[in-house]
Amino acid sequence: MDCLKYVIFLVYLVKQLNDIGKLELIESLLDSPIIYDKELDFDIYYDAVFTAIDNIFEYSTRRYYENNCFELTVLSDKVMVDYYILAGEFGKQRGISYKKNPYIIDARREAERHFIFSYSLSYRIHGHIEPKRPFHSRLTIIVYDEGDVDMIGVAIGIAAMYKFFQNKCSELRELLSKEAAAA
Amino acid sequence: MMKVNVTKLMEAISEAEAYRALEEGNAGLSYLYDSLYNPISNGEPVRLHDLDYDRFSLENVSELEDYYDTNSLNQWKASNISRELRSLQPAALKVDFL
Fold first, then answer.
1. What is the DSSP letter of B55?
2. Does the beta carbon of A4 lie under 8 angstroms from any beta carbon of chain B?
3. Mean pLDDT of A164-174
4. What's the rounded Cα separation, in Å, for the pair B38 and B52?
5. Contact A32/B47, CB-based, under 8 Å?
6. A36/B contact by beta carbon, under 8 A
7. pLDDT tens, B17-73?
8. What contacts A80, CB < 8 A, 6 or more positions away?
9. A144 in helix, strand or coil?
10. Given pLDDT bands bounded at 50, 70 and 90, which one contains residue A77?
11. Among A162, A145, A164, which Cα is nearest to A60's?
12. Contacting residues of A for B54, CB less than 8 Å apart
């Protein structure tokens, strides 16, 4: 792959971080030229990618399971926890079950859109409408050893999920407050 | 032996688009082309910190990627044609006056 293609992917990620108000996470990395002497600086590239993966969501753990040959990244954030609480309220008011709640289904579909670009990549999403502990709702990304997963694709997917929860929280808050005012 | 109809080849070359033009009136894509694509293509150093991320959308970045893919494909086709032409063996023609 040409250097320019890597740079285009990186600009996509940086733009996402700018849009969700998290550009400061990798801002200092972007001060140096990304291409030097016609060669991509892979140190900056992967530093930006993994900084984004580990820091977009407030709660993040990454662990490699040697026996099973996969790496597990578990993510959660206030915006994700709030989303499921608000989705639960939406469902409760309409008497919709968890499984049929459109917001629960939407979040799963959104994750599927971003984390199925490789056979070596998988995800799980666990949303709790009545969380029992902090960061109870979680998004888990599983990267298997045998394949070649482009990690910038994972970072882009995580940023997109954050934006999804952020936008939908505003939408749900507005909807629920309108309904509360009308009642 | 491969034969090339020079007239047809010249016609095909003159009809082909030299490059895929940037979509006119797309300010975000033009900004990315001028500040990123063009300098990098010319070997100039680019610092991503210098980009104004409010002047383009995510869709513009995807459009730039499409533009890059199309141009890379066209470049690959052109170099293939060029290689084929360079490998052609010259053939003597019968000349009546001799």
1. S
2. yes
3. 97
4. 16
5. yes
6. yes
7. 655 567 777 899 999 999 999 999 888 888 999 999 999 999 999 999 999 998 888
8. A57, A127, A137, A138, A139, A161, A165
9. strand
10. very high
11. A162
12. 18
Which of B52, B58, B69, B75 is the mutation pick for testing A, counting most A CBs within 10 A? B58
Q: Which of A104-108, B18-22, B91-95 has the lowest mean pLDDT?
A: B18-22
Output the pLDDT for position A28.
Answer: 86
Query: Is B6 within 8 Å of B92 (Cβ atoms)?
Result: no
Quote ipTM for the complex.
Answer: 0.87
Please state the pTM of the whole predicted model: 0.87
- Where exactly are the structural domains of chain A? 3-182
Mean pLDDT, residues A49-72: 95
Closest residue of chain B to A31, computed from CA coordinates: B49
Q: Judge whether A14 is closer than 8 Å to chain B, CB to CB.
A: yes
**Residue in chain A lying closest to B49 (CA):** A30
> Using H for helix, E for strand and C for coil, what is the string for B9-53?
HHHHHHHCCCCCCCCCCCHHHHHHHHHHHHHHHCCCCCCHHHCCC
With beta carbons under 8 A apart, name residues in chain A contacting B72.
Answer: 2
How many residues does the structure list for chain A? 183
Mean pLDDT for all residues in chain A:
94
* Two structure tokens written together for A177: 């407050």
Q: List the domain boundaries for chain B.
A: 22-77
User: Tokens representing B82?
Assistant: 């060029």
Work out the percent of chain B whose per-residue pLDDT is above 70: 91
Is any Cβ of chain B less than 8 angstroms from the Cβ of A21?
Answer: no
- Nearest-CA neighbor of A81 among A134, A11, A24, A145? A134
